[in-house]
Amino acid sequence: LRHFERRIAVPLPDDAARKEILRRAVVARRLPMPSDSELIRFSKSTVGYSASDLVLIVKDALGIARDRGEQPDLAKSISHIKPTISEDIALLYATFSARFGHESPALGPSNHLVRTPPPYMSLYC
Fold it and tell me: pLDDT tens digits for 95-124?
């Protein structure tokens, strides 16, 4: 068993990050690119979704389109794919991070974005 010295909570993506995740997932799967305003609308309607949830939405839209011979529709996929992290779980992670997290002078409390690994980690990577 390995013992990790730090506990890092990675928050759910914000609007800008969700928009970029969706954009990259669409590009990676060579789907028709939604307009910027559509991507903004999709990112605002997916609050609480993780990055893997967002990629699943794009994959689902592609799968449905292939099965039915239609154009991919992200809005339909968003309507039936729900976030995998509930508000209760997000609160549990935030509480855990506040209770057991570490502070970094550069980044503040551990409930912020990922911090750089400690120097000794380079020995193992």
Answer: 877 777 655 444 444 444 444 444 544 444
